[in-house]
Each structure stands twice: as structure tokens, then as C-alpha cells.
Amino acid sequence: MAQHFLLSPAAKTLSLVKIMRMSDDQARKAFQAIRWADTDGDPVCPECGGVEHYNIKTRPVWKCKACAKQFSVTSGTIFHSRKLAVRDILAAIAVFINGAKGYSALQLSRDLSIDYKTAFVLLHKVREAISVARDHGALSGDVEVDGAYFGGYVKPANEIQDRKDRRRKAHQSGKRQVVIAVRQRDGSTITHVGQNEAEGVALVAANVQRGTTVHADEASHDRHSPSHRREIP
Ligand SMILES: [Zn+2]
Questions:
Q1: In the chain, domain spans
Q2: CA of 109 relative to ligand 1 center, distance in Å
Q3: I need a surface site. Which of 51, 97, 102, 206 has the fewest CB within 10 A?
Q4: How far is the CA of 192 from the centre of ligand 1 (A)?
Q5: Which residues contact 44 (CB under 8 A, 6 or more apart)?
Q6: 217 alpha carbon to ligand 1 midpoint, in Å?
Q7: Sign of CA dihedral 206, 196, 152, 175
Q8: Which of 226, 148, 156, 222 shows the shortest CA–CA distance to 192?
């Protein structure tokens, strides 16, 4: 199972002192190397996984040749923000990963010359990302994606006619939700509750290692064929 980039050796050897001395460009390169270790730091489109891209000259972003989406080094991660400097994000990661106990948001805000609230949010995000990564890890190998719709109703009885009626009602109520499960065969499962199955694409992009075979249950993407839907246990 692949490691989340925050748990990688590259992230663990980040030095706060080195980071503080980095230029914006160097910081972005360092973040690239950690985030996209599989490609030696070459950008990978967070939308479609494409590795071919155009460089945008005026800003530090790339444009995916496959899906035309523009993305930066932090796109698709919880660190994505127009306001945060990549160097500050790296510093927060270093502080947290090096386990500098007692290193507070206040200290970080002083060291980076950023306001307290920003430092607090940054540390919180790192903590959240790492705990999620430790819980799940990235899925790899054979991964299945499955979705099931639920309305705000009690699980239907076995009677077929009754089920159809209830489903129609649930559909009209606007309270339908979809539970998407991304499951590694013989491995862990990540679930997400959302409004539509398109959200599953983002879930896969965020949690599945490159080169993974993703099997989608075709029928589950057709909301008009309830007989083929599967429910997530
Ligand atoms: Zn793309």
C-alpha cells in the first residue's frame, strides 16, 4: 500500500531551517518532489491523472493536456489556497512531522510572520491530513468504486412494487444521497456521502495510487436502473 505523501521519507526529512531559507520557486519544487514522488516531482493532473501538461508562463500553474484543467502544486490537496505561500505550508508540515512537541500555532505564526489564525488553520490541516492518511493509506492494486443511493426512507421491504414507489417518492423529496465506496480488493474501503456519484471521481483521485486499476460498477452510474444498483453494506 502506498503512503500518503505526508508520510513519505521525503516529507519526514523536511528541515524547518532549510524551508525558511527557500525561495518561492524552491519551495514549490520541494513540495512537488514530496507530492509527486512517483514521477520524481513531475506534475500529475489531480483531475484526471494525466502526466502531460503545458506550462503557464505567467503563473506557477500547469494546464493538463488531457483534460485542459489548470492546476498548481497544491491543487487537489487540502492545502490548496490562494492566500497561503507554499513555503509556509511546507514549514507547517515540517513542524508537525518532526514532532516538535509544544511547537504552537503562536510560535509558527512568529517564525513565518503570518497571522495566528493562518498558522492555527495550517497546523490543523496538517494534523487532519496525517490522521486521515494514517487511517486509510492510499489504495492500490484492484480498486472497485461503487455507489448506492439512499433517500430519507426506511430500507424498503422485499415487495418489488412497493420498492419502486418508495424510490420514486425518495427521488422527488430531494433528500436522496449517494454513498460512494472506493474499495481495495482485500484491503480497506473509503466511503463518502454526497449528492451525486460524480463526487466519487474526486474521491478516487484523492485516494487511489497512480497505475491502479479502477473497476466501476457501470449500473451504479445509471440512476434509472435501480435493479442493478448495489447497496453498500
Ligand atoms: Zn487532467
A1: 5-134, 142-231
A2: 35
A3: 102
A4: 22
A5: 36, 38, 50, 51, 210
A6: 23
A7: positive
A8: 148
Q: Return phi, psi of residue 175, to 5°.
A: -100, 10
Please tell me which residue, 193 or 49, carries the higher pLDDT value.
49
Ligand 1 mean position to 183 CA, how many Å? 23
Reported as a pLDDT band with limits 50, 70 and 90, residue 152 is very low
Mean pLDDT of the chain: 72
Distance 42 CA to ligand 1 centre (A): 14
pLDDT (tens digit per residue) in 204-219: 666 666 666 777 654 4
Q: What are phi and psi of 228, to 5 degrees?
A: -100, -5
- Given a contact cutoff of 8 angstroms between Cβ atoms, the answer to whether 210 and 38 are in contact is yes
Cβ–Cβ < 8 Å for 44, 75: no
Percent helix, strand and coil across the chain, each to the nearest 5 = 40, 15, 40
Q: Residue 188: CB partners within 8 Å, gap ≥ 6?
A: 136, 137, 139
- The pLDDT-based confidence of 190 (bands split at 50, 70, 90) is low
The Å distance, Cα 67 to ligand 1 centre, comes to 4
Give the pLDDT of residue 221.
41
- For the record, the C-alpha cell of 33 comes out as 518532489
Q: Which pTM value belongs to this model?
A: 0.53
Instruction: Give the span between the Cα atoms of 80 and 64, in whole angstroms.
Output: 17
Distance (Å) from CA 105 to ligand 1 centroid: 35
Coil, strand, or helix at residue 150? strand
Confidence of residue 223 (pLDDT cuts 50, 70, 90): very low
